[in-house]
Specification:
The complex is a heterodimer. Chain A is mainly alpha-helical. Chain A is built from eleven helices and four strands; from the N terminus they run H-H-H-H-H-E-E-H-H-H-H-E-E-H-H. In chain B, 29% of the residues lie in helices and 18% in strands. A five-stranded antiparallel sheet of chain B has the order 4-3-2-1-5. The chains are: A mainly alpha, B alpha+beta. The interface between A and B is large, with 77 and 85 residues.
Chain lengths: 195, 205
């Protein structure tokens, strides 16, 4: 790389086409078999799953107790499991504690409940700053956490994948579980937003 | 260049409310390429991660996330003998940048362990050894003291798997560090950071 000027580089589209063609010709890559997996990611995984987990926890105290003591099993009760979700740890926000999830080394993220991570989660600014100055970074992102609230950052450096259980907003007592799921955002389950 | 925790100078987080799983078709193809190729090429998740960690630092910081995957897994294909740099350049119609050679070596200790030596509440110090190869001990906690807040089941040590040593288990812990311990005068009160660490990364404080 260092020996080549950027203008010498083949475009990324040409690069993926080149390596894909080689591996298909050699019988190493079976595109049809993998397409189904990719479609599963695009269609079935995403924050709508995590939102159902949060809404159930808000609506059902017994479910919430199970979720906090064994996140993986409680999330699987709702049908969400698989790679990058085999060891789920749920961390709960309160009036005293705000949780924030990051992966400083790469891009670890709970795929079954949140899908593939957004670009900013994988980008250097977030990964560098979340562990160094989380309160300042969150304020810049529009989420002001008062100084008397402890910020707990979780760097996903090994097997555990983290899901933030946000605080239930006031005035939602009359909402159904489905309606509650509708107000839970991806960002609130990463911890960069409060509801 | 991947070990980014605490590095200064990146500016604001460029946050977007929503985005599709794949913004462009080549990104989707790259995801499919990784999912379908790492196993058949004889790789594992540690090797895959390290294939990206070995990217030229300037390339790593100037390229998108999916280009990291494209570069890393293609490097694995070349190293497995499935294709050469010359053939890739010819087929792509230009230079196909790859990652640098693997300088990592297997750790000395290849003993599998499952029994946890530390308990919740224990204070531990992270060993300071900065290996040239793959590790899941971020630089910003090496040498720092923290307290164990959760015990996780023994798990496969990435440092060993990434360098061809196979499946070796080690007890795993979640360790809490204060911001002041990590960053000194540059840290903040009321902020703590948790990092998940293998027992072999830890020593008594």
């Amino acid at each position: 790389m260092a020996d080549h000027r950027p203008e010498d580089l083949a475009p990324v589209e040409a690069r993926i086409a080149a390596i894909e063609a080689v591996l298909v010709e050699k019988g190493i890559l079976d595109i049809d078999a993998v397409d189904a997996i990719v479609a599963h990611f695009e269609n079935n995984l995403g924050p709508m799953n995590g939102a159902k987990v949060v809404a159930r926890a808000w609506a059902d105290p017994e479910y919430k107790a199970r979720l906090m003591s064994n996140g993986t099993a409680a999330i699987a009760e709702l049908g969400f499991s698989g790679p990058e979700g085999d060891h789920m740890v749920v961390v709960e926000n309160s009036s005293d504690i705000h949780n924030l999830v990051v992966c400083t080394l790469c891009s670890c993220y709970p795929w079954p409940t949140l899908g593939l991570p957004p670009k900013w989660y994988k980008a250097p600014a977030y990964r560098a700053r979340a562990v160094r100055e989380p309160r300042t970074m969150l304020a810049e992102m529009g989420t002001v956490i008062p100084d008397d609230v402890e910020i707990r950052v979780w760097d996903s450096s090994a097997e555990a994948r983290y899901l933030v259980l946000p605080m239930r907003p006031a005035g939602t007592d009359d909402l159904s579980e489905e309606q509650l799921a509708g107000i839970v955002t991806r960002d609130s389950m990463i911890g960069v937003q409060q509801l | 260049m991947h070990d980014l925790g605490g590095l200064d100078g990146f500016g604001p987080v460029e946050h977007e409310e929503t985005e599709p799983a794949f913004a462009e078709d080549w990104e989707r193809r790259t995801f499919r390429f990784m999912v379908g190729s790492v196993g058949p090429l004889g790789g594992n998740s540690g090797m895959f991660r390290h294939s990206i960690e070995r990217m030229d630092p300037a390339h790593y910081l100037s390229s998108s996330y999916w280009e990291h995957w494209l570069t890393g897994v293609t490097t694995m294909a070349v190293e497995a003998g499935a294709v050469t740099q010359e053939e890739l350049d010819r087929r792509a119609g230009g230079h196909f940048p790859l990652s640098r050679p693997d300088r990592g070596v297997l750790p000395d200790d290849l003993t599998a362990r499952t029994k946890h030596r530390y308990s919740v509440g224990d204070t531990v110090r992270v060993r300071e050894w900065h290996p040239p190869g793959h590790t899941r001990a971020p630089r910003y906690v090496q040498g720092k003291c923290g307290s164990i807040v959760r015990i996780d089941p023994a798990s496969n040590v990435s440092d060993i798997e990434a360098h061809g040593g196979g499946f070796v288990t080690d007890p795993l812990y979640c360790v809490r560090f204060t911001s002041r311990e990590l960053w000194g005068d540059g840290g903040n009160d009321g902020e703590v950071v948790h990092v998940d660490l293998f027992e072999r990364y830890l020593q008594e404080a």
